[in-house]
């Protein structure tokens, strides 16, 4: 029937208007910014960098492998890799990003950077209050602005973060067992060093008949 959708919409509006006097469920208006609806766990907008421990810089999981930079479809990730290594949050020496910027005015929230990262270092954030009057500088987020603790990841995506933690713990157990097995393995017997070859021309003994 022509206009059926409009009539259905008006009926729903009327139901909410009348119902809002007796039921909180029918209060469809949210008094933002004083009031905010909880976001669904799967909500996402732009990426952030996860760090472990309390020091954001030392705790960044990112090792600047640049895979995400290469795979990002609109090329809005900019990474500079360090020339040296620094201890990470557990003291392991790691390459790290000296620059890690994301231009969120270009980012299309595709999550490919998250999918390709082998180190669980980049995840999708659900922060949406990012409006700024600085069109360029204000939307180019650097590594410090992007860094957020693992606890924050657990807060916004609890199921996913718990799975990641379990996976990382399992990988650590395997790596520790491998290192232990390698340390316990018998060392190959030392091969005696070969005697230096005597170069005939340099130490040639006098020919017979030339002596004396
Ligand atoms: S979400 Fe997509 S567009 Fe945004 S930084 Fe990651 S790969 Fe690039
Ligand atoms: S976020 Fe992941 S994929 Fe991107 S550079 Fe860091 S470690 Fe590599």
Short summary of the structure?
The chain has 212 residues and is an alpha+beta fold. It is built from seven helices and eight strands; from the N terminus they run αβααββββαββαβαα. The protein has a domain of 96 residues: Alpha-Beta Plaits, CATH 3.30.70.
Would you write up a description of this structure?
By secondary structure, the chain is α+β, with helices and mostly antiparallel strands. The chain has a domain at 47-126 and 133-148: Alpha-Beta Plaits, CATH 3.30.70. Helix content is 32%, strand content 14%. The chain has helices at residues 4-19, 56-59, 67-71, 112-116, 143-146, 150-156, 158-184; strands spanning 47-51, 77-81, 86-87, 93-94, 97-103, 122-124, 140-141, 147-149. The N and C termini lie far apart (129 Å). One iron/sulfur cluster binds next to α4.
Which consecutive residue ranges, at least 5 long each, have pLDDT under 50?
A: 199-212
The averaged pLDDT comes out at 88
User: What proportion of the residues is helical, as a percent range?
Assistant: 25-40%
Number of helices: 7
CATH topology group of one domain: Alpha-Beta Plaits
**Tally of DSSP β-strands:** 8
Present as ligands are:
iron/sulfur cluster
N/C terminus separation: 129 Å
- Which structural class do you get from the secondary structure elements? alpha+beta
Summarize the helices and strands and which ones pair or pack.
Elements: H1 4-19, E1 47-51, H2 56-59, H3 67-71, E2 77-81, E3 86-87, E4 93-94, E5 97-103, H4 112-116, E6 122-124, E7 140-141, H5 143-146, E8 147-149, H6 150-156, H7 158-184
Parallel strand pairs: 1-8
Antiparallel strand pairs: 1-6, 2-5, 3-4, 5-7
Helix pairs in contact: 6-7
The structure holds iron/sulfur cluster (2 copies).
One iron/sulfur cluster (SF4) is lined by residues 62-68, 79, 117, 119, 121-122.
């Amino acid at each position: 029937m022509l206009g059926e959708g409009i009539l259905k919409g008006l009926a729903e509006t009327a139901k909410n208007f009348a119902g809002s006097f007796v039921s909180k469920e029918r209060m469809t208006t949210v008094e933002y910014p004083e009031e905010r609806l909880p976001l669904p766990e799967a909500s996402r907008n732009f990426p952030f960098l996860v760090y472990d421990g309390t020091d954001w810089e030392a705790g960044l999981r990112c090792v600047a492998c640049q895979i995400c930079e290469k795979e990002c479809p609109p090329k809005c990730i900019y990474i500079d890799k360090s020339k040296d290594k620094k201890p990470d949050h557990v003291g392991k020496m790691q390459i790290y990003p000296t620059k890690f910027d994301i231009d969120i005015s270009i980012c299309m929230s595709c999550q490919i950077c998250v999918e390709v990262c082998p180190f669980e270092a980049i995840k999708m954030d659900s922060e949406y209050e990012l409006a700024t009057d600085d069109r360029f500088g204000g939307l180019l987020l650097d590594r410090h602005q992007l860094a957020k603790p693992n606890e924050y990841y657990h807060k916004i995506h609890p199921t996913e973060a718990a799975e990641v933690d379990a996976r990382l713990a399992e990988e650590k157990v395997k790596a520790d067992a491998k290192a232990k097995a390698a340390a316990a393995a018998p060392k190959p017997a030392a091969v005696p060093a070969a005697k230096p070859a005597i170069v005939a021309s340099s130490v040639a003994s006098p020919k017979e008949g030339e002596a004396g």
